[in-house]
Design a protein that fits this description.
Shape: globular
Number of domains: 1
Bound molecules: zinc ion
Radius of gyration: 11 Å
Strand content: under 5%
Order of helices and strands: H
């Protein structure tokens, strides 16, 4: 499935070290197995302005 490209540079890289894009949440490297994260990690990523978790693809921003 082709989605609109986001501005995150993970998409343009030859070697991507994360499974999910932190900006749009699509899989950028499906050879990396999805991880299971602690809520602490997600809280940290949320503070770092990530919209999605790069390890498990979870949407980090709470809907209002
Ligand atoms: Zn993206
Ligand atoms: Zn996660």
């Amino acid at each position: 499935m082709i989605q609109k490209r986001c501005a995150n540079d993970n998409h343009g890289r030859a070697v991507v070290t994360v499974r999910f894009c932190s900006n749009c949440g699509v899989v950028v490297n499906d050879r990396i197995v999805a991880g299971r994260c602690h809520t602490e990690q997600h809280a940290k990523m949320r503070r770092a302005q990530s919209t999605y978790c790069v390890d498990c693809g979870e949407h980090l921003v709470r809907a209002r």
